[in-house]
Automatic annotation (TrEMBL):
Residues 130-272 form the Peptidase S49 domain. It holds the Pfam family Peptidase_S49. InterPro entries: ClpP/crotonase-like_dom_sf, Peptidase_S49, Protein_C. One of its GO terms (biological process) is proteolysis. Gene3D superfamilies: 2-enoyl-CoA Hydratase, Chain A, domain 1 (3.90.226.10). PANTHER family: PEPTIDASE S49, PROTEASE SOHB-RELATED. This is Peptidase family S49. Belongs to the peptidase S49 family. It comes from Salipiger thiooxidans.
């Protein structure tokens, strides 16, 4: 049986919309020698190309940074062969573009169900830092769920295209514990040292579940704090905005269209061509300046003096 991408995520705390990420998790891990092709980015009526290893493209003063696939801290094999983003890569990219004087604005092009909790804070902080220097526009086209939304929430603004979704804010973990002998006839036992019971909580026990939920709740608190700060929402109000019912515990849902905007999760509802046309007009390169009347008069005077 071939190894699947899910093996990269087994047992780790995740900020992931499982429903949207399941098909990606079941993909086979690409072989190291697999042929890698270029990626196409749709920018309005144009298509830009990203070669393997390239993390962004620049078009008419605007840098386009895709945030795509299942997000990991540094799984560069998945980045190179599948074109999926990594937190370390995003952190470096946004820092580089923030310092690039030829870039007037940055677009975070979101198409991800989320990924690891580990490493996400650095990527989100890099987006926030870039947004303090120049505009960072997040375009959700078609998905910014969980970890991807965490990152997008730090942008200057968020635009949602028709049919696209945001949300799934919260953390999860898929755990396993041996409960019976395996196919070999041997039963697996997992032991930890006397003062490291929390190293491997047993999810089959109430104590183990409490420990796992404690960690997930702490991660969720950081997630909520980042989204509240990025979106300008009172932290105490956020759980109710994210809930699908009147119970704040029923968060983690996805939202789209006018409801996503009403909940404060996005700023604008707009189709992709209109978005790109609007940004193109706002950040179009300025034509070179022509000499004004005073400058022409000075030049004529200089030529006259030179002829004396």
């Amino acid at each position: 049986m071939s190894r699947t991408v899910a093996s990269f995520f087994a047992g780790a705390p995740l900020a992931l919309s499982r429903a949207h990420g399941e098909a990606l998790l079941q993909m086979p891990v690409p072989a190291p020698g697999a042929e890698v092709g270029a990626r196409a980015l749709s920018v309005g009526a144009m298509s830009l190309t990203l070669e393997p290893g390239e993390r962004y493209a620049i078009h008419r003063n605007i840098a386009i940074v895709p945030i795509s696939g299942l997000l990991t801290p540094n799984a560069f094999l998945l980045e190179r062969w599948l074109g999926w983003s990594t937190y370390h890569g995003l952190e470096a990219t946004f820092a580089e573009l923030a310092a690039n004087e030829d870039v007037a604005a940055i677009v975070a092009l979101c198409d991800s169900p989320g990924g690891y909790v580990l490493g996400i804070a650095g990527a989100a902080a890099a987006v926030a830092a870039a947004a303090s220097v120049k505009p960072v526009h997040a375009l959700v086209h078609p998905l910014a769920a969980s970890a991807c939304y965490h990152i997008a929430s730090q942008a200057t603004d968020i635009t949602l295209t028709p049919g696209s979704v945001v949300g799934s804010i919260g953390c999860m973990q898929v755990s396993a514990a041996p409960v019976q002998p395996g196919m070999s006839g041997d039963q697996l036992f997992i032991l930890s040292s006397s003062h490291a019971r929390a190293k491997r909580p047993d999810p089959s026990t109430e104590e183990g579940q409490r420990e796992s939920v404690r960690v997930l709740d702490a991660m969720e608190a950081d997630f909520h704090a980042a989204v509240a700060a990025g979106r300008g929402i009172e932290l105490a109000d956020l759980p109710a905005r994210l809930s699908s019912t009147d119970d704040p515990a029923d968060g983690g849902a996805i939202f789209w269209g006018a409801e996503a905007q009403a909940r404060g999760l996005v700023d604008r509802l707009e189709d992709a061509p209109t978005f790109w046309a609007r940004l193109g007009a706002a950040y179009a390169p300025r034509p070179p300046r022509t000499a004004g009347r005073a400058a022409r008069a000075q030049a004529q005077a200089a030529r006259a003096l030179a002829g004396l």
